[in-house]
């Protein structure tokens, strides 16, 4: 076939073509040459060549037919496009004409031109519908340029807003396929924002209308479905859903703020949010406070039930106030002591749960309250926290702890009130932290600040007063316990032994037991309190401990060896006093130790010892009272030296 194609030359002449074929065929020459003329071989070559030409003809014919079909198709498409362009142009022209006619018809009197006006109106309506349908089809085909052309024509028609509505409706088809409607809405608006400027002459208005449609139809319906179901049946879930939905809606609004939506988009978006949530926000704080009260009461009741404890009714009013004042002034336990079996009735788990519920309430309050109502709403939540945490839990535990403190003359009393003090201090810190971290930011610039601070101050002062009362009574019990130890363990013969030369002990058994008891209580006080409170309580205990020791030593008569033993006891008491790390307490025991020297010093040296640095400033009657404790005091010699 390639050989056959080579024989063709332009212009084509049949005789020359055959001549060239003959010359190329061996045995086809007629003028001598290497081979003689061979008619059979030439005939065979002609037959073969004719077959090749037939095959070539068929191939070329098929190619021609294909090209003809393609040409016809392109011609039809071109004709259709031309027709569409012509039609499009006739629409624009018709629209311009009908628009002008419509305007003119408005000025014509109805009674004379009713038929004409009716026809114009009908044509106007038909053309408007055609344009909207064309816009709808173009949008479905994704033909932005065609949409722009039709929208420009419709701009002067009454149905332009309907064109926008169609666009908004079709934009949302298939837009909400995820589980997150808010993310879907954000993606939709971002997509439309990029496109709307290429279609409409007022893109900010169209985009704003889309957003309004999304909020008022899609989001409002979604929010209603999520909230109405649990609004009356499950307050906890309702509040969680409300907070979550409102937060996600405001977050979506923040994303939309980056778009051009007209002049005041902040107000526009705020109104849309309000339209969705207004019916839920109007009574939000009532639902919040109602839920918080019931939840807090449940947390407390669950705790007391776990302790198999039935809460005592703590009275209020005149009689209770009178009892409280008497107790504070006299330190008398009014009413029988209650055995709490070591239970403080304070639970850090309960406190954490109450604070966590209140923290969430503060967060919801911050998000869901109108700015003008925020301080007042936050104060209402704070008062609920005070009621259930401070009064129903802490104050109840303090009252119960006070009632559980035994009288000062009880033997082997278990003193648990310091455990109450320790836990109450920890709770106060948590309460104060929440006050500063979560309440203060909500009320800091409002008159409610001073009201909250005053309420907090009153609560703390009331509780500190009860803590002080309990600590004071606990210290009295400690001193009472020391008295029991001394009364049981201290013998008169300890300081006036029958055999002065056979005393083998370094200090008395009573001293050993008292010091062991005191050290245990000092450690307990240090673990139960912090800061200056530790020093204040230890100083009070140390002073009372000193007074007890002083008065105890005044009860006995001392021989020389007994006086030495008393000095050893006081030395141990002084070592114990060092654990207090309170200078005043140590100074008191130093002075007591010096006074005990008066029990053993030689009569001739009494005046010298009394004028020493530690005793010189003491009242002479105190010095005399210790000298009188000497077994040899009545001897004329001793009385003469001290007079």
From TrEMBL:
It holds the Pfam family Sec10_N. Residues 39-90 form the Exocyst complex component Sec10 N-terminal domain. One of its GO terms (biological process) is exocytosis. Residues 93-642 form the Exocyst complex component Sec10-like alpha-helical bundle domain. One of its GO terms (cellular component) is cytoplasm. Residues 50-88 form a coiled coil. Keywords: Coiled coil, Exocytosis, Transport. Belongs to the SEC10 family. This is Exocyst complex component 5. It comes from Canis lupus familiaris.
């Amino acid at each position: 076939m390639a050989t056959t194609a080579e024989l063709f030359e332009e212009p084509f002449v049949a005789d020359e073509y055959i001549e060239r074929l003959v010359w190329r065929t061996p045995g086809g020459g007629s003028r001598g040459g290497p081979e003689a003329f061979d008619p059979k071989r030439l005939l065979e070559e002609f037959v073969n060549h004719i077959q090749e030409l037939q095959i070539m003809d068929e191939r070329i014919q098929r190619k021609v037919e294909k090209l003809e079909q393609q040409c016809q198709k392109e011609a039809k498409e071109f004709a259709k496009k031309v027709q569409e362009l012509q039609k499009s142009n006739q629409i624009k022209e018709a629209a311009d004409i009908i628009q002008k006619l419509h305007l003119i018809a408005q000025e014509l009197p109805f009674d004379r031109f009713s038929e004409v006006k009716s026809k114009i109106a009908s044509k106007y309506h038909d053309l408007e519908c055609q344009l909207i349908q064309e816009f709808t089809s173009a949008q479905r085909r994704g033909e932005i340029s065609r949409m722009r052309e039709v929208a420009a024509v419709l701009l002067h028609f009454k149905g332009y807003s309907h064109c926008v509505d169609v666009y908004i409706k079709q934009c949302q088809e298939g837009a909400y396929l995820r589980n997150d409607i808010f993310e879907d809405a954000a993606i939709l608006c971002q997509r439309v924002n990029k496109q709307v400027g290429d279609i409409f002459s007022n893109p900010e208005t169209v985009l704003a209308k889309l957003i309004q449609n999304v909020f008022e139809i899609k989001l409002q319906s979604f929010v209603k479905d999520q909230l109405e179901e649990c609004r009356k049946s499950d307050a906890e879930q309702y509040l969680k859903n409300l907070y979550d939905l409102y937060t996600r809606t405001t977050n979506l609004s923040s994303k939309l703020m980056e778009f051009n939506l007209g002049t005041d988009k902040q107000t526009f978006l705020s109104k849309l949010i309000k339209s969705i949530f207004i019916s839920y926000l109007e009574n939000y704080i009532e639902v919040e406070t109602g839920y918080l009260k019931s939840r807090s009461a449940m947390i407390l009741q669950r705790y007391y039930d776990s302790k198999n404890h039935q809460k005592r009714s703590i009275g209020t009013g005149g009689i209770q106030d009178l009892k409280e004042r008497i107790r504070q002034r006299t330190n008398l336990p009014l009413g029988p002591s209650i055995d709490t079996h070591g239970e403080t009735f304070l639970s850090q788990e309960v406190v954490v749960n109450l604070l966590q519920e209140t923290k969430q309430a503060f967060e919801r309050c911050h998000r869901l309250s109108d700015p003008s109502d925020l301080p007042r709403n936050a104060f209402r939540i704070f008062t609920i926290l005070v009621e259930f945490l401070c009064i129903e839990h802490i104050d109840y535990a303090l009252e119960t702890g006070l009632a559980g403190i035994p009288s000062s003359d009880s033997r082997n009393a278990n003193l648990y009130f310091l455990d109450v003090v320790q836990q109450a201090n920890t709770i106060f810190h948590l309460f104060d932290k929440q006050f500063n971290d979560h309440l203060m930011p909500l009320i800091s610039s409002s008159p409610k600040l001073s009201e909250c601070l005053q309420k907090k101050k009153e609560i703390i002062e009331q509780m500190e007063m009860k803590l002080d009362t309990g600590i004071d009574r606990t210290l009295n019990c400690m001193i009472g316990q020391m008295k029991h130890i001394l009364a049981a363990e201290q013998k008169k013969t300890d300081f006036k032994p029958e055999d002065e030369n056979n005393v083998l002990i370094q200090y008395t058994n009573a001293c050993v037991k008292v010091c062991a008891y005191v050290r245990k209580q000092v450690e307990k006080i240090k673990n139960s309190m912090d800061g200056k409170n530790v020093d204040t309580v230890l100083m009070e205990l140390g002073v009372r401990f000193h007074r007890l020791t002083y008065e105890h030593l005044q009860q006995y008569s001392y021989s020389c060896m007994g006086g030495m033993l008393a000095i050893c006891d006081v030395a141990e008491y002084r070592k114990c006093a060092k654990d207090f790390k309170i200078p005043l307490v140590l100074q008191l025991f130093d002075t007591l130790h010096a006074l005990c020297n008066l029990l053993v010093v030689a009569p001739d040296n009494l005046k010298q010892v009394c004028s020493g640095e530690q005793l010189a400033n003491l009242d002479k009657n105190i010095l005399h009272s210790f000298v009188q404790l000497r077994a040899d005091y009545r001897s004329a010699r001793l009385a003469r030296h001290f007079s």
